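Module 6 notes. Inverse folding takes a fixed backbone as the condition and produces residue identities as the prediction. Think of it as a translation problem where the source language is geometry and the target language is the twenty amino acids. Below is one complete input and output pair. Work through it position by position during the lab.
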């Protein structure tokens, strides 16, 4: 059990992209809206563990996990088995019509695993954005207040309300407005770009001053925060920032929503990134790694807030689909059994050592940061803090051509992030990092 079916080795048999990928890319261009783009046109036919096999038979190292989704590995055997079993029983009834146990069991797991031992309730949805929207609905319902505060560099999704919360214009917001009203943005803690030596408490005070002056604590329903900002650039806030924001929220009756969609489920070396400083959010949104590759999202939180909403006020046709729920139960069981938090810490230490050595040799790497198996480098023009997004683009493309799937991110597009499956084997990870190092070295 849990042994990947595809050999865990990088193996290239064509130039990348290969001929069959190029054929598919031509079909895609004629059929798929170009607004939906891909990082690199390698079409995947099979995957297992941390290896993707493309349609030309190339085996690629996956250092992105489909954006932090397959933490338990591609085609994790327990997930495959649970999905097959559930889909053969029944694939859908709609939980709001005819309920079923897996939905209840997933909510029990969520209530037990998310930070804090207070009484909780959960509700299930299809996507991260939908979970964030519902967290805002619940916070507004429970507080009777309108305003929602998000941070600079935030990413919370692509629906209209979550685009209002998301900070970056291109590619997310450009020409898609007008956005939902009563959303306000205040500064985050970004140690690499904040004034030298700014503490977490000082960064929190800067944000709180703006909320109080521009929005008003009494008019604020919720504060929505990624404990480590993902798409914004793997920005780890200065210690003390999150606890200070959470304490201010509690003192002012503002619902503190932790968006753990990217950071949750062992990725950072804890079950949740909030655990690192003992922050207990009022509501937490999770998705991505929750169901081992199946689409599932959740809002979990204080029972008094969750139960404020009238019966029928939350839901959706597919939310908490039984197949996705079965996958989630298997995925979380796998995280527990294989202790994937410990694996994330081991991966983090190995990645960090390599990235720091790279940074010491290459002045184009301005910062190395992250936690657990969520590590990144920020690229700058040597000797400055000026972002170098072109270098990030070239390095990511070079990695892909060499058979390593890596991703960029960041408000300035200049961050390369590593999110390997937490089951990646050490030698495969080392090979992937060698390729990255070669691509960085080629920058001179
Ligand atoms: C990915 C992500 C979302 C959106 O999730 P979708 O499933 O793509 O809608 C929201 N918040 C964070 C922090 C994310 O990383």
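Target side of the pair, the amino acids:
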């Amino acid at each position: 059990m849990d042994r990947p079916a595809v050999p865990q080795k990088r193996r290239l048999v064509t130039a990348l992209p290969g001929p069959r990928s190029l054929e598919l890319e031509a079909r895609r261009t004629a059929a798929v809206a170009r607004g939906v783009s891909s990082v690199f046109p390698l079409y995947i036919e099979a995957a297992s563990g941390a290896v993707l096999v493309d349609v030309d038979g190339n085996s690629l190292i996956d250092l992105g996990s489909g954006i932090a989704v397959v933490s338990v590995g591609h085609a994790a055997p327990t997930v495959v088995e649970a999905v097959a079993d559930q889909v053969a029983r029944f694939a859908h009834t709609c939980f709001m019509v005819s309920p079923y146990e897996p939905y209840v069991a997933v909510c029990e797991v969520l209530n037990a695993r998310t930070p804090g031992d207070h009484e909780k309730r959960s509700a299930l949805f299809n996507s991260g954005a939908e979970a964030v929207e519902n967290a805002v609905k619940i916070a507004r319902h429970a507080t009777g207040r309108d305003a929602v505060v998000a941070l600079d560099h935030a990413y919370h999704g692509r629906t209209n309300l979550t685009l209002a919360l998301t900070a970056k214009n291109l590619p997310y917001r450009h020409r898609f407005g007008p956005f939902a009203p009563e959303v306000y943005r205040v500064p985050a803690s970004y140690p690499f770009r904040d004034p030298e030596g700014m503490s977490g408490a000082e960064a929190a005070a800067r944000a709180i001053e703006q909320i109080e002056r521009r929005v008003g604590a009494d008019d604020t329903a919720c504060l929505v925060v990624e404990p480590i900002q993902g798409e914004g650039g793997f920005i780890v806030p200065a210690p003390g920032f999150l606890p200070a924001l959470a304490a201010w929220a509690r003192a002012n009756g503002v619902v503190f929503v932790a968006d753990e969609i990217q950071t949750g489920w062992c990725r950072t070396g804890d079950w949740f990134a909030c655990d690192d400083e003992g922050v207990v959010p009022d509501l937490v949104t999770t998705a991505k790694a929750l169901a081992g590759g199946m689409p599932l999202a959740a809002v979990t939180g204080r029972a008094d807030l969750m139960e404020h909403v009238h019966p029928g006020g939350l839901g959706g046709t597919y939310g908490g689909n039984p197949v996705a729920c079965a996958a989630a139960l298997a995925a979380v069981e796998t995280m527990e059994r294989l202790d994937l938090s410990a694996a994330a810490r081991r991966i983090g230490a190995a990645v960090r050592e390599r990235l720091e050595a790279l940074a010491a040799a290459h002045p184009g790497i301005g910062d190395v940061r992250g936690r657990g198996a969520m590590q990144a480098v920020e690229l700058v023009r040597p000797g400055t803090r000026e972002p170098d997004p072109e270098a990030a683009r070239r390095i990511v493309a070079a990695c892909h051509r060499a058979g390593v799937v890596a991703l960029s991110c960041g408000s300035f597009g200049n961050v390369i992030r590593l999110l390997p499956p937490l089951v990646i084997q050490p030698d495969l990870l080392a090979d992937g990092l060698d390729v990255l190092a070669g691509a960085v070295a080629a920058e001179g």
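Reference fact for the lab report: The first strand starts at residue 44 and ends at 48.
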